[in-house]
């Protein structure tokens, strides 16, 4: 009972701190869409780094990553901690820096707005917004579902699932609608720093309890199978590369991450942030995922619906410390959801409402952005009550879905001869084929001896974008070299 009260107290304390930050941010926020969604492009190095960090890694670090390491071995550190950290860092420069330059010069708030203006195409703008919202919606729902389940377990059923998920949803609506990007980024900075400190503290505590890092790692040699074999078991070269590529490219196109490419204060901020990103990722993933592997070697038994890290901490750390880590994971879950809600709202208001409503104004758009947060969160909450298998599957495959956008976007940013029809076919074709691979047997889920179709779909999208652009540019005379405005 005392542990439960402590966990609930920590969650409530975090919410109060976040709300206080939101109030301060609201007082500094102008009543414009640019300030609400992008904090007027004023984020510095530390805040930009940590808001991206907390938005991406939060609950995954505490739950999913250690679970994977527990089941398949510590090579997951190679997939996520090293490869994805480096790949995303490179993409941040190759795509993110170029996007920042274009966005700052033209005042863009979303990816759809940038591409729609680039090709003078309302249809393309709506296509990009539709694809992004389709893959983002189940992710918001999954965060609410996770929060509701965790609170129900935390209180021993005293707070039912619907009440926990509903309470978290109401809080996030109020907080995000109030504070916008500025408040979200400030809170994420505190949350990211907290995650680093608490994960390393847990790592040191468990290591000390079992006789040191060497003793804990030595137990992994006793695990049956290919637990420590490089490239063995689950971790075939094709699986490792497919997973790392899909996640890194998908993360780059996640709306809540992609919009952060627009918010840096200056070139210097971006250039300082890029080399720090892989370091920060490794500092977080190595201890978290190693603890998941240690748990396997130490004989911690994990049930089908249980998470390994709470069980490991419960066995080797004091109850109050385990409570602190798990309650921190709950707060981290909210740090992801708030950014998703803000991004989902911006794609709706900026890419659907603004181009379709002639009398749209900055003030009205900012107001509707707050309304959009409430609508988006409420719809996701209602969906979470039913826990539909189809939405769960969409959420599980969203990285690959977002990854299909990355190469056509890269072509559009760097190749002046890209055409709107190249973008239509490249994005639409790869999305269609990827959906068929996920939900049907028409397109195989893996190809060429184990490569994920998400990677194959990316290559197909690239080929379609380039080839159709060449045909339409030379045969139809489509002018693709200037930024234009207006509809098709």
Structural write-up:
With 488 residues, the chain is an all-alpha fold. It has a single domain, classed as Sodium/glucose cotransporter (Up-down Bundle). Helices cover 78% and strands 1% of the residues. It is built from 19 helices and two strands. 53% of the residues are buried. Residues 481-488 have low confidence and may be disordered.
From N to C, what is the helix and strand string?
HHHHHHHHHHHHHHHHHHEEH
Shape from CA axes? globular
CATH architecture, please? Answer: Up-down Bundle
Span between N and C termini? 62 Å
Q: Please give the domain count.
A: 1
What is the topology?
Layout: H1 2-28, H2 33-38, H3 45-62, H4 64-72, H5 76-106, H6 111-118, H7 122-154, H8 161-209, H9 213-218, H10 237-253, H11 255-258, H12 267-297, H13 308-316, H14 319-356, H15 362-386, H16 389-396, H17 398-414, H18 420-439, E1 446-447, E2 451-452, H19 453-475
Antiparallel strand pairs: 1-2
GO biological process, one term: sodium ion transport
Family: Belongs to the sodium:solute symporter (SSF) (TC 2.A.21) family.
Organism: Halosimplex rubrum
Notable traits:
488 residues; mainly alpha; two-stranded antiparallel sheet; symporter activity; transmembrane; sodium; sodium transport
